[in-house]
Amino acid sequence: MTAPNRALVVVDVQQEYFDGPLEIQHPPVDDSLARVTAAIDAATAAGTPVVVFQHTAGEGAPVFDPTTERFALHPEIEKRRQAGWTSITKRYSSVFAETGLLDWLHENSIDTVTLVGYMTNNCILASAAAAEAVGITAEVLSDATGAISIGNDAGFVDAETVHRTLMALLASNFAAVATTAEWTTALSTGAPLVSSNLPESATAGAARFTRG
Hints:
Blueprint: E1 6-11, H1 29-46, E2 50-55, H2 75-78, E3 86-90, H3 101-107, E4 112-118, H4 120-133, E5 137-146, E6 150-152, E7 155-157, H5 159-174, E8 176-178, H6 180-189, H7 198-209
Parallel strand pairs: 1-2, 1-4, 2-3, 4-5, 5-8
Antiparallel strand pairs: 6-7
């Protein structure tokens, strides 16, 4: 397999996600933050480009108001900032939506994005799915992302179920899913992550859950 040319894409590791209704619940936010920073450290050591996103909902919005302190990146991210980082503000869930990221990837001959940050059930999901349509390979680090519990007219789902389900869904078609440790090893060797696909996932699922 061809060695990937990667960029680490750090998605919305903003103060908004560390308390209040959007606090990341699974994996615990402090645990996932530690894995995000470990991925940043590994990328920096390997000379892998880092792109950092912050989400804005506009001035006066109840969340992600760019005029508030909660819009800021977590201090553990800021203290690792390098002069060569690319910083982008986005308005939509996908990192590809009206951000210029795809042009930047092409200009730098990057074919693979490694997604870390928040939330699994929104921006990570949307970004990984959008990568397929623009010809970019997506990787998602399962322990460096995180989800919240959700409830609406369609039902209620706890954060662990949300996260575990979406990791399996992403791995079935949209992204290679791995832990930060597994990715760091692949980064050091220049190897692609091992990924599943829809036929393999369907076959394994049917074998486990076939009705009697």
